[in-house]
Amino acid sequence: MTARRSPWLSLAAFAVYFFLLGPLVIVAASAVSDTEYLAFPPEGFSLRWFQRIFEVSAFLDTFWISLQIAVAGTVLALAVGIPAAFALKRHGVALPSWMGTFFVLPILVPEIVFGFSLLRSVSVALDLPIVPTLLIGHTVIVLPYCVRVVSASLANFDFSAQEAAISLGCPPVRSFFAVVLPNIRAGILAAFILAFITSLNNVPVSLFLIGPGVSTLPIQMLIYVENFFDPTIAALSVLLMVLTVVVMAVVEKTLGLGYFVR
Amino acid sequence: MTARSPLFTLLLAGTGLAALSTAALAQDGQLIISTWGFNGDILDEVLYAPFEAEHGVEIVIDQGNNADRLNRVRVRDGGVDLIYLADAYAQQAIADGLFQEIDRGQIPTIGEIYEVGQAPHGEAYGPAYTIGRYGIVYDSAATDDPVTSWGDLWREEFAGRVTIPNVSTTAGQLIVLAAGERAGVDAFENPDAAFAELEALAPNVLTAYGRSSELVNLFAQGEVVIAAAQDFVVGSIQDAVPTAVWAPLGDEAYANLNVINILEGSDQVDLAHAFIDFHLSQQIQHEMAVRGVDAPINRNVELTEEEAARWTYGAEVVEALRLPDYERLNEVGEDWTTRWEAIFAN
Amino acid sequence: MHRRFLPWLLVAPAGLVILVILVLPILDTARGTLDAAAGHGQAYLDFFDRGLNRGILWRTTKLALIVTAIAVVLGLPTAFYIARSPQARRSMLIVAAVFPLLTGTVVRSFAWIVILGRNGLLNDVLLWAGVIGEPIGLLYTETAIVLGLAYLFTPLMILSLVGVLENIDHDLMDAARSLGATPAATFRQVTLPLAVPGLIVGSVLVFTGSFTAYTTPVLLGGQRNTVLATLLYREAMVEFDWPAASTIAVIMMIVTVAIVLTMGWLARRMNPAVE
Questions:
Q1: Does the structure show a pLDDT above 90 at B12?
Q2: Contacts of C102 in chain A (CB under 8 A)
Q3: First vs last C-alpha separation in chain A
Q4: Quick one: closest CA in B to A136, which residue?
Q5: CB distance C106 to A218 below 8 Å
Q6: Of B333, A109, B329, B317, whose CA–CA distance to C249 is shortest?
């Protein structure tokens, strides 16, 4: 299967990977620098910047808010997204062809435009408080990932199993929970994780929706970077990267990473 | 049936969390204060925590620069009790009818502050809590010629090493007045000449800053060596760049007042008054000055020479400062902002 | 009849969520730009009347084009390399390319502050190598934005390309080679045309992503190198001019939709098999 590769190609690919991963290594290394400013290579070794993360109450508070919004938004998106994915796969012919495109709209629409419109036409116009607005905004941005990943896992599902259950007298709704759902559990987990990370990292939509006592972790990090130049953000970045690695490792072990690439 | 439980648990948890986070906002016993993000840790310790303890209230902070915060108040139409603003922005807010009238009887400590700060916008609105100078801070190690005038910002040796406050910030428009003086005109009468001077300054300006802490950051990173700034940041800059100094601009420096006001729609009016009174008290004003947060405006605050070094301090200094005409600045605001952006924000 | 409505019933909740929370608010924003008292389209005339705005639109477009070009140049060889790697190695390489994508934009832009700052890594290296005599200003420039965005979006290009390159029959290339085609000619005449659909999808993602990016221009461009997204934020939250902000939002939407449709049309024309 493997063809010969020119050494130039390998060199080019190596250079690109250096470009992609080098900066993250630099961030990680400067997180342990024992200096008041960012230094690479790190000068001295200290873990105090990791300690500092837990002393800045803004980081803890906003991490908690981000976590709630990400979990609640993802769960809501799955709740409406799983039936939609099921319909697209099982009853695709009965639905117009633009339906698939309609569900990826939130990816196509510039997030900053969406954020502004949410503020202008929903939050302000309908007098909706900040947290619910944030929640519905995040639900919408993660919905495409839920629909697509769950659809992908349904692609391998043999619907005749459900038909069989129904013909044996199982009510259709129950057949969905008893037959279909267990078979796509892995896909749902992958969708959950992908959506969760997407929500946790979002800046443009949250940007317009912060207010008294309510902000998200990425927004707080953005403010911190603009204002301070110590290695705290580098340390926080390392923690977030570790979180990402752990999540990816779990997915890799349980499902294979094909889910992220689709 | 076991298959359904994980999903349902997840769903339940999700909706529960959603409900929880929605409820979190609507708590009683909160005093919501809109202020700058600078020195948050010290303010927490010196100002907020003691007040919270004494009054059994939770203080929630909305932070950002003047324009961001003022606009959030305009957008949200309520939700904030007290707001800290620079003079010019307070004036805008008054014009928009965003402030409640204050009851001076509930703020006895007003009598202790310098007269200039007692009622900068009339008896109906809030007092100043600090007074500062707007001038130049620079790294004395970066040049052989001491900086003594606004005109020094234009020096060729500072190419790409200057930062000025964003036009949307407290002192953003004052650079136009300085440019007018350099051109030998009154910028209000002849803005074209003033902006022509700013055009000439553009190659020197690396970026504009939106927050004081951003300015400190720019110095700390070595990106800039000279800035138009307010004097209260000098100490923080010196922590990062020990050779940084406040330029003696003499009578070229401007005064600026920061004021506290109670917002229309606040339902914590009594607490808000008590908080203003607390912030103006001699003890807090002294603590703020010593901890490097704000210059004292309370006449009874006594500082050692060392403590006073970074501040606009003492009756003599305070009474000599020139106050920019903020009312006129607000009138020309939109035009100047447009011109400023064409030069520095393109 | 129950059967006929079932599919619609199942897609309805998700469809309504997108319709009510995404589509309607954006249409409302767009409508707001049209019923200005001054007359139809006045908001747009005002926008284009300001040289500053035209400059920002041009800068945003220019930066997005450069970033797309860089992503193609970096992404093609890498994707090609990945596609020709053995299976086990391939998934590892894909993971390494995906990982930056799953790390937040704040973290990834922040990395470039560390690299490009006056006391940063790049200046240190250039000083050490004697290329420059004293540190040069790299941060808060268009170059910094381009680097940051290329860093942000190259993985998307790689993933889009790997998808199509994996499906190209290696025998086809080997056949071309055995018939005497040079590697370069094989690449140009066989591989490249087959990679076009992936190239188009990748370019759409990278261009629209760069065109609408907010975080990276804010952190790496500073106040002076305004792009449309930062202008939108400034008009909306600093200047408090919502009609102007809405106008920018609509212009961003129009450009994005135009690019998506044009590239989709191009993809169909070049390869009818693409959806």
A1: no
A2: 197, 201, 244, 247-248, 260
A3: 22
A4: B18
A5: yes
A6: A109
